[in-house]
Amino acid sequence: MKEVSVFHGAGNPHRAPLQQALVAVKKRAVRVYRTHVMGAASYVFTTTSKDVHLGLGVLDVEALRTLGAFLNEEFKDGGTELLLSLDQDSQGRKEALLVTMTCPEALVLNFTLSPVH
Predict the structure, then answer these.
(1) How far is the C-alpha of 79 from the C-alpha of 24, rounded, in Å?
(2) Mean pLDDT over residues 25-51, rounded?
(3) Fewer CB within 10 Å: N-end or C-end of the chain?
């Protein structure tokens, strides 16, 4: 297997811009959380919100599959993003997630979930 270093080596013109981007991300302390559910239909839910990740984590496998199937059905009209409304919070504000989908023709559907503030 070939091992490639992002920070050492020469010849790849993409190395320096990638290094700069990675250093910038590291300075911001951004975390990306992924929740996977695999099976006949496989889904990956990605978020930078720890609260959303923990919320997904309390769902059982069947509930995650149902969520993936629900979102997949909502994206069938060809849209690239949707606003998923949730219950109101304790102060009466509506909670919502901005959801985008990538790889709609792939075996694994990827949904990115971002809280709306």
Answers:
(1) 31
(2) 86
(3) N
Measured distance CA(106)–CA(21) in Å, rounded: 28
> What kind and span of H or E run contains 87?
strand 81-88
Q: In degrees, to the nearest 5, what angle opens at C-alpha 61 toward C-alphas 42 and 68? A: 45
Burial of residue 37, with CB atoms counted within 10 A of its CB: 0-12 exposed, 13-18 middle, 19 or more buried: buried
Q: pLDDT confidence of 56, banded at 50, 70, 90?
A: very high
Two structure tokens written together for 31: 């975390």
Cβ atoms of residues 69 and 61 within 8 Å: no
Dist. CA 31–CA 49, nearest whole Å: 8
CA distance 19 to 25: 10
pLDDT at 46: 93
Q: What is the DSSP letter of 110?
A: E
Contact 112, 103 (CB under 8 A): no
For the chain, how big is the Rg over CA atoms in Å? 18
- The answer to whether 97 touches 115, Cβ cutoff 8 Å, is yes
